[in-house]
Structure formats: structure tokens, C-alpha cells
Amino acid sequence: MGLYIILTIPPLLLGLWAQWRVKSAYEKWSRCANARNLTGAQAAAEMLRRENVNDVRIEQVGGTLSDYYDPSAKVLRLSSGVYGAASVAALGIACHEAGHALQHARGYAYLGLRSALVMPAKFGSYLAIPLIMFGMLIGALGLAKLGVIIFGAVVLFQLVTLPVEFDASRRAKAALVNNGVINAPERAGVNEVLDAAAMTYVAAAVAAISQLLYYALILAGNRRR
């Protein structure tokens, strides 16, 4: 029980703090209009156009902070609070997603690796823990070990996600500054929003690593008995 608390509570608290930070930064900078009165969709389109990426569509989707780039369809999907909003937060989020489109266009290796890991990670997230629990329940340590190995795909996906997300934010910040889209106060807002979002990925990676370590240590303890 002590091991479980040590390895799960700190990552949980980190995740809750990261989510609060994202929500707080988004709400704060969503209320601040940018000086150029550009919507998120317009800023993303301008960023892609300046980088000579002309085959990516930009569409509006429902939800809040549901923004993502779909590399299979080459579509940038932006939530309504980002697509048509002329806020500082909208600029940062839209251009972050446009950063993923640039990664795709430039053949960024980590993006390709993350795409390749999507299915193994989904498979691992559904199957690994039942295998581990069932294996330990019936004393089939080989089956439990297989579950731990499969869960490793989830951890690898989370680790590969980190450079992908950090690089997309770096591209967004550079484009917004270099293209003269934001001024100094707005730059601080974009940094706050994107840095807060980055912490959610750090928290997810920490949680996955801690979970893997917990099951690996439990399995190791059962082997010694």
C-alpha cells in the first residue's frame, strides 16, 4: 500500500495541478483580444502560408480545447473557442497545432514515431493491466510479465509525445514573433498558455512511468517469494 501511494499520488497531484494551470491560463488569455484582431484560424493559416504549406485544411470542431492536427487527412481541427476567436490564447493554441502540420510537412521524425506508436499504445492501455492483474491472481508470472512489457508501449508513446509537443510549441512561438503577429505582452500570454499545456504531457508521462514501475516492482516482489 505504501508503494502504491508513493508511486501514484504524486503523479496524480501533478496531473491535477497541470490541468488547473491549463484551465487558468486558457481562461485568462481567452479574455484578452490580440492587437491584430486575428482569429486562431487566420493566424494558423498565415503561419502555414509563410512556411509554404498549402495542402492543409483548417476546420472548426465542437468542444473546448479539443484542437488537434490530423496527419492522415492533413486537416487542422480547431475548437470554436480557438477557430473564430481573436484572443491571445486562440493564437497560441491554433499555431501550436499548425506546428504539428509543419512537423508533418518537414518529416519530423518524432511525429512519425508517435503516429506509429498510436495503435500499440491503445492496445497496451486496454490489455496490459488486465493481463498483469490476472497473471498475478492465478500465479502466472509470465502472463503478468507480458502485461508489463505491453504497458511499456504506453510509456514509450508518452515519452515520444514530449519532444513532439515541445517542438510544436517552439515553432508556434517563433512564427508568432517572427511574423509580427504578437507584441511583447501577448508573447507572455502565448508562452503561459503553451507552457501550461506542455505540463499536462509531462504529467501524463510521469504517471505512465510511475504506473509501469509500480507493476514491475510488484512483479519482482512476487518472483522472490
Task: Compose a concise summary of this entry.
The chain is mostly helical. Helices cover 76% and strands 6% of the residues.
Structural category is mainly alpha
How many domains in all?
1
Q: Give the C-alpha Rg.
A: 20 Å
Task: Name the shape in a single word.
Answer: elongated
Overall mean confidence score, pLDDT: 93
Helix-strand pattern: HHEEEHHHHH
Terminal CA distance reads: 18 Å
Strand order of the largest sheet: 1-3-2
What share of the residues lie within helices? over 70%
Number of strands: 3
What is the beta-strand fraction?
5-15%
Low-confidence stretches: none
The number of helical runs is 7
Largest sheet features: 3 strands, mixed
Topology:
Blueprint lengths: L1 H29 L9 H11 L6 E5 L6 E3 L4 E5 H4 L4 H19 L2 H30 L2 H38 L5 H41 L1
Helix pairs in contact: 1-7, 2-4, 4-6, 4-7, 5-6, 6-7
Would you write up a description of this structure?
The chain is mainly α. It has one domain (2-224). It has seven helices and three strands, in the order ααβββααααα. α4 crosses α6, α5 packs antiparallel against α6 and α6 runs antiparallel to α7. It is elongated, with a radius of gyration of 20 Å.
